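Re: your question from the hallway

Yes, I did run it. Sequences:
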Amino acid sequence: MWSVSDDALVAGLAAGDQDAASAFVRRFQRRVYGLARTIVGDDRAAEDVAQEAFLRAWRHAAAYDPRRGSVVSWLLTITRNLSIDAVRVRRPASFDPAVLVETDHESTERGPHKLAELNDDTARLRAALARLPEDQSRAIVLAGLLGYTAREVSEIEDIPLGTAKTRIRTALQRLRAALVSEERAE
Amino acid sequence: MSVYSCAQLREVAPELALGVLSGAERAEAIIHVNGCARCQALVNELTEVADALPLLAPEHEPPPGFESRVLAAGRARRRRTTRRWVASIAAAAAAAAILSITIVRVVESNDSASTVAMREPVEVRMVTTPGAYPAGWAYVTNGTSVAVAVDYHFPSGRYRVVVVPHGGTSATIDTMTVADGRGSATGRSPVPLPGGSTIELVAAEGNTVCHGTVAPES
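Structure:
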C-alpha cells in the first residue's frame, strides 16, 4: 500500500476496502490531526475532529473528484471545516503565523514521488507566505487557515474592518501571483 | 437584495474563496458569480490557493490507537448507514410510486386516451460556493417534481426550498430540516423548470446557503 497513489486509495475507500481505509488513515493522520490541533488548540478535541474528518472522507469517497484538487487538499478542507465548527466560541487568537513559515515536516508514510510533490507545493506556499508583510500573513492565516471572518480579524488585530478586508484580499492575491509565477518559471 | 457588480465581486472574491464571507454577502456574491464566467474563473483561481492553505499546518502524531479507533468507528457507521439507507430507499421508492400514480391519474382524468411516460429525472448539483464539492443533489422529474437532499458538511437548521424558473418568479415549495449534516425535502414547482432555472435552500435570515442550476436540455 506504501506506493499506491492517493487517488487509488480513495477509490479503494469508496469501494469499502479495509486495507485501503487503513492505508489512507496511516498516510494522512499526521496532517489531519496536525491541522485539527492547530485550529482547535486542544489534543482531545483535535482527536475527535480528526476522527470525524476521516469518517466523512470515508463516507464521501465516491464523490471525490480529482479534477477539483488533490486528495490531501480535499481531506484537509474537510478537516478545516470540521475544526472551525468545533470552535464556534473562539479562544483569543494567539497563533503566530511565523510558526507556519518556519515548520518543515515530512510524512514517513508517503511514497517518495508524492512526498516530493507535496513538500514542493507546501514549500512554495510557505515561501510565498514568508515574503508577505507580517500584517498580511497574519490576516491570511487567521482567515484562510483558522477560519476567522474579516470582522473577527479586524477585532483580533484591532484594525478597521476595511483594513482587515484589504489585508486578506491583498495577501491571497499575492500568494496566488507568487505560485503562478513560480509555476510558469518551472 | 442587490446584486454585486464585477468590481464589487472582485472586492469580496478572496473572502468568498476562503469561505469566510458572511451569509448575506455570500448570497449576493454567489448570485453574481453564477451569471458571470469571468468572475467565476477568478473565484476558482483564488479557491485553488485557499484550498492549499491548510497544507501549511504543522503535522503532528495522533495519540496511540488513533488508526484503529477510526477504522472501528468507520465500520460501525457503515453498518448503521446501510440500514438507514435501506429504509430511506424504501421510503423514496414508495413516495416515487405514489407520485407516479398521482401524475398518471391527474393526466388520465383530463385525457383518458393519453399515455403517460415518466421522464428521466434531471440531476442538479447543489453547491454552497461556486467550484465547491456538491453539498447534495436535487432531482427534477417531469419538469416540476423536485426532490433535494444534502449530506455533505451542511449546517444544521431549517431551510426553505425555493425554485426559480428561468425567467420566472420564485416560489417556496417545501421546507427542509438539516440535522447532523443531512436533510431532504420534496415538492412541486408551480411551473416547469427549464434549463437555467435554479433550486435554492434559503436560511431563516433570507440568505441563500446552497443552490443548483438546472442544466439546459441537450
